[in-house]
Specification:
The protein is mainly β. The chain has a single domain (20-125), classed as Lipocalin. It is built from 1 helix and 8 strands, in the order αββββββββ. It has one helix at residues 2-15, and strands at residues 30-38, 41-49, 53-58, 61-71, 74-79, 91-98, 102-109, 117-125. It has an 8-stranded antiparallel β-barrel with strand order 1-2-3-4-5-6-7-8. It starts with a helix and ends with a strand. Keywords: Signal.
Length: 127
């Protein structure tokens, strides 16, 4: 009876020490790729971000966004020239984990806590 309790206690002790890696500052600038699905079709977009501007390249279109960093791992993206009311909505981005050249992020319209989505961006070049 003692051994299962001791094993469980050791497991809890070691698992509580584990923290996910978040080197968010490594991903503030650079050129990135993001793969997503629309209507079951997988698409890839590319974006280039410096500290305050992000330029998106997708489906032969180019869009520019402002970037406002809240902290090292969270930022707000907003289109500079929105074409619709929906385009004018700011997007809150939060980096959840990082690896060598990728980061997992969560995003939603600012203030929308119910419709969060996740994605992975791959850093393909430094600036």
């Amino acid at each position: 009876m003692k051994y299962p309790v001791l094993f469980l206690l050791c497991f809890l002790m070691f698992s509580s020490c584990y923290q996910t890696e978040r080197n968010c500052s490594d991903f503030k600038t650079g050129e990135f790729e993001f793969t997503y699905k629309i209507n079951g079709e997988e698409k890839t977009s590319r974006f280039v971000r410096n500290d305050s501007i992000e330029v998106d390249y997708y489906e032969n279109e180019i869009d520019s966004n402002t970037v406002r960093w809240i902290n090292d791992c969270e930022f707000i993206v907003k289109k500079i020239n929105p074409k619709s009311r929906n385009d004018a909505k700011a997007i809150h981005m939060k980096i959840l984990t990082t690896n060598k050249n990728t980061y997992l992020f969560e995003y939603s319209a600012v203030g929308d806590k119910k419709n969060k989505q996740k994605g992975t961006a791959i850093k393909i070049n430094d600036l």
